[in-house]
Design goal:
The protein has 83 residues and is α+β, with helices and mostly antiparallel strands. It is built from two helices and four strands; from the N terminus they run βαββαβ. It has helices spanning 16-29, 58-68, and strands at residues 3-8, 36-43, 48-54, 75-79. A four-stranded antiparallel beta sheet has the order 2-3-1-4, covered by helices on one side. Helix 1 crosses helix 2.
């Protein structure tokens, strides 16, 4: 399955609790779209969030965020793991 990294460039009011809650909601919705949100990283100061996701396509990954909490990524790129 393809793997994607998405980037949210500036989530207003980002906190540790808020990003954890949004990720939890992603996990609750992801199966409906055949998606697996693997990991996330964030910077509270800038409001930037990065999500690593396995999904059949970009649209499925976007659909999970849209349904779970409405915070659709600004960018999403297919990535391959390096060794």
């Amino acid at each position: 399955m393809p793997r994607f990294m998405d980037v949210h460039n500036h989530v207003v009011g980002l906190t540790t609790e808020a990003v954890a809650g949004a990720h939890k909601r992603d996990l609750e919705v992801q199966e409906k779209y055949g998606v697996n949100y693997v990991q996330y990283w964030y910077d509270e100061g800038s409001g930037k969030v990065f999500c690593l996701v396995d999904a059949p396509d970009k649209e499925a990954a976007i659909a999970v965020h849209r349904e779970a909490h409405g915070l659709v990524a600004d960018e999403i790129t297919e990535v391959k793991e390096g060794f």
